[in-house]
């Protein structure tokens, strides 16, 4: 196998694990475990992000008719996760491999110390040749602390463990120019160099009722990963030898090229770790200063402040039409920011009675997502 990849995150969607049915397809899971074990034998480190807990819970409890509440989903995940990890543990043991389970929520990624802790655990498992298996901790994660879908979770896992390839396996051959389920003429897009709004429009949600997020969340995941220098491939989990093919650089599915100058580690965390607690709308001058001139954000360029947040919170910075153009940590809380919005930096102290500096969001605390974003 020809591969420049050292460390790969493989994400398996519910659609792959169930092969479109209502139960785990163990015969296919063993084939996927075989492929991952072969890669590990060839010297590539593999981290598995697996969905399927809720599906496995339903199967194990013999498809109970439960009201569709959050508590019942958590019940299914609690039952199903143990079945899922048991299945993976048995399947990898066929190839002489141990597995280690990490159940994460956004809170684990939000807090920088917990983030680094999770990273240490991942590295320790990989150093011992143990397969780290990650899923969201659905049994305890409420909407507030959830990443929400395993595509986004796998991108964060790829950043966490400094992977060089993220392989998103699903029930389609890759990203098409329309959802192939509704459009028989849809064509596969073999390579993506830039992710922009026109591409986002092509990527729809999940219509099968099995997966969460569809192609839309896969595109979000691809965007996060490639900004951190991670290549991404979206491909079919049922394509023959798909894992070795993608790792070997073969043209399977849709390949997203990584950005040439990836973000440094702290900025990767700003991008993917904390949940945004608010939004600020910027005027055109501020958008151009932030996006094109590499400047910090000053209070003068703020048109509006949305949300309740404390000083130090991560915010979405939007242009005047509401499109997110950057993410950054704000040096002022929501109330203070609303009071100084549109005002000159010299006036901050007189208005607030204190001054944390001219830069409301400092350049070093900001990740710019677009250039020419007015
Ligand atoms: N442009 C597109 N190209 C391919 N698939 C798409 C597109 N837009 C929406 N989809 C849908 O995304 C689905 C895959 O996502 P999802 O159901 O969440 O699966 P998984 O469980 O693998 O995450 C496909 O079955 C397809 O219907
Ligand atoms: N954490 C959930 C899966 C969430 C999810 O994103 O599912 P999918 O879109 O099938 O990858 C579970 O284990 O059932």
From TrEMBL:
It comes from Shewanella cyperi. Substrate binds at residues 51, 138, 150. PROSITE patterns: GLUTAMATE_5_KINASE, PUA. It comes from the Bacteria. This is Glutamate 5-kinase. ATP binds at residues 11, 170-171, 212-218. Belongs to the glutamate 5-kinase family. Pathway: Amino-acid biosynthesis; L-proline biosynthesis; L-glutamate 5-semialdehyde from L-glutamate: step 1/2. One of its GO terms (biological process) is L-proline biosynthetic process. The lineage of its organism: Bacteria, Pseudomonadati, Pseudomonadota, Gammaproteobacteria, Alteromonadales. GO terms for cellular component: cytosol.
């Amino acid at each position: 196998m020809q591969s420049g990849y050292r460390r790969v995150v493989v994400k398996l969607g519910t659609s792959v694990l169930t092969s479109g049915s209502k139960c785990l397809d163990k015969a296919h899971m063993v084939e996927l475990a075989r492929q991952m074990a072969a890669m590990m034998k060839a010297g590539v480190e593999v981290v598995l992000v697996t969905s399927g807990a809720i599906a496995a819970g339903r199967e194990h409890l013999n498809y109970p008719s439960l009201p569709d509440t959050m508590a019942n989903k958590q019940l299914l995940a609690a039952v199903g996760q143990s079945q899922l990890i048991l299945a993976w543990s048995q399947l990898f043991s066929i190839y002489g491999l141990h597995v280690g389970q990490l159940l994460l929520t956004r809170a684990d990624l939000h807090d920088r110390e917990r983030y680094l802790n999770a990273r240490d655990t991942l590295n320790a498992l990989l150093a011992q040749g143990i397969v780290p298996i990650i899923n969201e901790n659905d049994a305890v994660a409420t909407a507030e602390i959830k990443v929400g879908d395993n595509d986004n979770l796998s991108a964060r896992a790829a950043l966490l463990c400094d992977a060089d390839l993220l392989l998103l396996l699903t029930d389609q051959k890759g990203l098409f120019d329309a959802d192939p389920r509704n459009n028989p003429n849809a064509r596969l897009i073999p390579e993506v160099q830039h992710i922009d709004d026109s591409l986002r429009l092509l990527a729809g949600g999940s219509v099968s009722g099995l997966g969460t997020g569809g192609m839309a969340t896969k595109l979000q995941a691809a965007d996060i990963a490639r900004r951190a220098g991670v290549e991404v491939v979206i491909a079919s989990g049922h394509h023959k030898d798909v894992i070795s093919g993608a790792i070997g650089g073969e043209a399977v599915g849709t390949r997203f090229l990584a950005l040439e100058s990836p973000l440094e580690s702290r900025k990767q965390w700003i991008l993917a770790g904390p949940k945004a607690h608010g939004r600020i709308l910027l005027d055109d001058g501020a958008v151009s200063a932030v996006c094109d001139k590499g400047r910090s954000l000053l209070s003068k360029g703020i048109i509006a402040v949305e949300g309740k947040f404390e000083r130090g919170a991560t915010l979405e910075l939007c242009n005047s039409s509401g499109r997110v153009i950057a993410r950054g940590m704000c040096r002022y809380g929501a109330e203070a920011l609303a009071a100084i919005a549109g005002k000159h930096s010299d006036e901050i102290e007189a208005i607030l009675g204190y001054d944390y500096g001219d830069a409301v969001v400092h350049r070093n605390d900001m990740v710019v997502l677009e250039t020419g974003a007015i």
